[in-house]
Amino acid sequence: MRVLHVAAEVFPLVKTGGLADVVGALPQALARQGADVRLVLPGYPAIADAVLHQKTIVELGPLFGAGRIALRLGTMPHSQVPAYVVDAPWLYRRGGGPYQAADGSEWPDNLQRFALLGWMAAHLAGGELDASWQPELLHAHDWHAAMACAYLAAHPANAVRSVFTVHNLAYQGLFPSHEFARLGLPHSFMQSHGVEYHGQLSFMKAGLKYASHITTVSPTYAREIATHEFGCGLDGVIRSRGGEVSGILNGVDGTVWDPAGDSGLAARYSAADLAGKLRNKAALRQEMGLDEAKPSAPLFGVVSRLTAQKGLDLVLAALPALLRQGAQLVVQGSGDPVLEAAFSAAAHANPGQVALRAAYDEALAHRVIAGSDVILVPSRFEPCGLTQLYGLRYGTLPLVRRVGGLADTVVDADEAALREGRATGFAFDAATPAALEAAIERAVRAHAQPESWRRLMRTAMAQDFSWNGSAAGYVALYRRLLGRRE
Ligand code: ADP
Ligand code: GLC
């Protein structure tokens, strides 16, 4: 089964969030199940300079404003997954991030940058660019890759099927409608049953309308995005696809996230030998300048993009209650300057009890997750969420809002779940400080009983959210779309 994955970021080369983790791990897991998987990626410097053994497959241009474009095939460092790199220096070779300049403004030519990515993927899928390999199925991730589905649909002779995965419906890739002319698509595509969205042009809608099947990253989010509350204005489009929308949970890459093998930790540990977990807690407190006078005081951690999605305003509101109960808080995150300033002020006002690291730092994220007792994920919406899965694996109990993938992966420590030994964390419903405070209080009370807390940790660590299960779900879907037997 030949499958081409199209995406704008990939761990460990370019990452702004969980999308990169998925694109890094899923192709490897699919390959382990026998699929012949390749990636196609934009040639930002961090990708074009890192993919190994590149050979030029074809040179093209000018296209989408780029005078010279080379499509190169190489292999991902670390994973050996074959990757096509779209080397278009005019569009991709620059500093800053994949979507934004260093000052946080969107790149003004994002339309061209991600139209080219989709165009390349569709033409690769159409067998036009690489005579030696043609996928049977194209799998596009989020709006940056979504135009691949439209370009594929624009070619009547194309039998290649497509899957579009929504990682986050809130980021849609909207552009002024007059830019449509740059895309080289028939006019019929710029209608309300196409990519037109309230007078604008929506890349996300291209994926939702033209893919053969839509997936998202948890079963609950798949249901939520069909509702007005979570549909970000696209719930009608989602509903119109009926049964062609499904949810497949993300997994954890156990080669990257494993407390027993994590070389960046102060001490490695496992469910059978939890002593090392306390050493990580002590080391994290020291690193963050947190008061070490009461070693048993519970330590809550946050590792997150600072955006409205993540519900961190609730953490700020619940902070006095958290501190009153003798707990401490460490926050690692960057993004929204208002949230960053608020956490920084909280850290200054509560020295030794609250600490902030406003940095994107992969190694530190491992230390925060390993060293905390509880990982806080109070999101307003969460398509899947990976940090709670990393928390489970590291015996750092997730405290989550019951939405999206958080609802699907964390079992609240209510009486029944505790009795039956199923509990793995704490969940609350209302997006209010009071509801979060009540959950924090329950977690602090549970933490005060070391025996039963250790039982919770062991249950959490025994959960299997490996990529194998998720990849099997994708393989079954691919087979169905290709009309093959299970
Ligand atoms: P999202 O993709 O919405 O940001 P996820 O929970 O799916 O949420 O994935 C977030 C990923 O980004 C995780 O791998 C997490 O460890 C990582 N991450 C978030 N913030 C930081 C940070 N400041 N430094 C390092 N890694 C971070
Ligand atoms: C998005 C979502 C997150 C999900 C990730 C990977 O960034 O916000 O919930 O885990 O994509 O699918």
Verbal overview:
It is a single chain. This protein is of the alpha/beta class. It folds into two domains: 2-251 and 467-481, 3-Layer(aba) Sandwich (Rossmann fold), CATH 3.40.50; 275-461, Rossmann fold. The protein is built from 18 helices and 18 strands. It has helices spanning 18-32, 45-48, 89-92, 110-125, 142-153, 203-210, 219-224, 235-240, 275-288, 312-324, 337-349, 362-371, 387-393, 404-409, 415-420, 433-447, 450-461, 467-481; strands at residues 2-6, 36-42, 52-60, 69-75, 82-87, 137-141, 161-166, 174-176, 196-197, 200-202, 213-216, 245-247, 299-306, 328-335, 354-357, 374-377, 397-401, 426-428. Strands 3-4-5-2-1-6-7-11-12 form a nine-stranded mixed sheet, with helices on both faces. It has a six-stranded parallel sheet with strand order 15-14-13-16-17-18, sandwiched between helices. A hairpin with a 6-residue loop joins strand 4 and strand 5. Helix 9 crosses helix 12 and helix 10 (312-324) packs across helix 16 (433-447). The longest helix is centred in the first third of the chain and has 16 residues, at 110-125. It is globular and about 65 Å long. The mean pLDDT is 97. The structure holds adenosine-5'-diphosphate and alpha-D-glucopyranose. Adenosine-5'-diphosphate (ADP) binds at residues 17-19, 21, 303-305, 332-334, 360-362, 365, 384-387. Adenosine-5'-diphosphate (ADP) binds next to helix 1, strand 13, strand 14 and helix 12.
